[in-house]
User: Fold this.
Amino acid sequence: MFNSIFIAGSLTWSNVLVTLGLALLLGFAESLYYTKRNLTATRSFAFTLALLPVIVATVIMAVNGNLGAGIAVAGSFSLIRFRLVQGTGKEILAIFLAAVVGLCLGAGYVAVACLLSALCMISDVVLSACRFGQAAENQREVRISIPESLDYDDLFDDLLDAFFSAYELIRVRTVEMGTAYQLIYRGTLRDTRESKRFLDAVRERNGNLPVSLARPADVGSEL
Assistant:
């Protein structure tokens, strides 16, 4: 069942058509699944997931058992330069899955490719249903701007202790051309209904400079 459909590196019309047909089918299935589960997916990304397996499968079939062709293909790929926006971990995983499915099909391991696709989709459904790795509902990120003349050490600790059950200062950076600091905290609110009171208290202390309170967002450039 898990043996390659290609015998001794030989290619036949039937094997090639079966491989490319399954590559298109699995590619479209993965693309459709990903776009339905991630509403922010772009059209170009959906096309990439749909067609990547058949392209990889074709390359693998072309170099199957041919060392010279494999070196030539590797050299041609080294000339390609991708200028892409950095994606999230799930996007990178989806692209890698599509490439691996195409590789398995190109090598003739049809059952492995189908099993891998089904297993990854089922695992995604189960992990999403269990909210695996999801932040707590009352976890918040606080961004506070203060004048550069203020010493930010322990400046807001009493307010944070009053409104947050746990928190940490994760980043300090300069803003407004270096005329102000921005403190970025991440923590867990004791009561989400007290958000306005917390913001008002911070504004009184930082001179009414910008302050924000929001759920931690997934940043595209971070994994």
Observations:
- The first helix runs from residue 13 to 37.
- The radius of gyration is 26 Å.
